[in-house]
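Person: Please comment on this record:
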Amino acid sequence: MPDRALSTPLDDSFERYLQDKGKGRGGDGGNYRRNAARELERFAEWAAGDRGADDWTGIVPDDVDREPTFDDLDERVFREYARHLGGDRGLKQNTVQTYYRYISAWCGWCVNEGYLEAHYAQRASAMAPLPEDDGRKPGDQQAWTSEQRHALTRHVDERARDAVEAYTTLPEDTDLLDKQRGRYAALKAARDRALVFVLAYTAVRVGELLRDPNDPRRRGVRWEDLSLDDGSMDVYRKKQQWDAASLPDPVISPLRSYRQLVDPPTDRWPVFPTFDQRTLAELVREELAERGEHPEVIDERREAHARDLLLALDENIRPPSITTDGARSILQRLSEAAEIDIDHPKHDYLAPHGGRRGMGEVLVRAFGYTVAARYLDNSEEMVRERYSHIEAGELGDVATEALEEIDSVPQ
């Protein structure tokens, strides 16, 4: 191996690695890139002695004044880092495994790129200090139960119906701003209802439905992506390609009535726009300024509307979709308002991914793994693994029935 490669500082390789692993043009997007960048930075700080126990001085010899290079890496370094992750940071077992995998993947890339001669991070001695997985099974992850799904959808449906009725039955002589406030409340309630129904019944991944700030290709579904007559929706799948997802009957009516209320200026409008006032205020100001409006005129236009979202609708200023984090905040608010009983160690609300898993359980129990896999856009093998607790329970019932039958036979 060239001496030049061995003498290369570790962090000189990070950007190339992250570009290779990133998504979008130039490899600048993607959650994996963001998470890997974070862990590589932590590893570099630890290697330099800036992170770790008080007596840890880094991987460079004490009598040498330079930053860590690839010449300093061997399996003992990765063994020590595995020990650091498991002991010094107080992380859960599976989290330690996940963080170490980011560093291990970078190490493997470095071998392929000629920075290292061997994949030290994958050697048995290097991985020995890693804790075993904490044993959490897929069936332990949150899945909306039928009772929870019905309670949440019933709550948002009643809330939306009340808000729409309050708006549409306003007297004709109602003040314009009061009418706008009524429309805004109806729009927000109808958006929340449509979002909950889509998450509850389509089993679409929340990252395929909404905007991901770290991946420019995931800009959130738009009205042009929906075909309510056909019962389908085009989404950018986890496998990095566009594909059609099914819109079952329970979802059609909330989406149709919501669209009628929104009356989007174009089909390129997001189905689930943000209602964040700060974001919309900045967007409206910038867009109207670019159109040549003077600041005082912009202020007058904004004052004439109860909310900037309504001005955006009037002027066809397209807002961004809510983010996946935004969806979690909405569901936290709605779960609390609906007073839903939730007993889960990690989430005290109905999390977005729980809707997908809950629908997966329904499909597996009703139609088996093959049909469920097609609807969930997963391999049958993965579905069997993630919902193995269902099969185990069914086999347990079979065993119980067999025991009762055998035990009932006189000996």
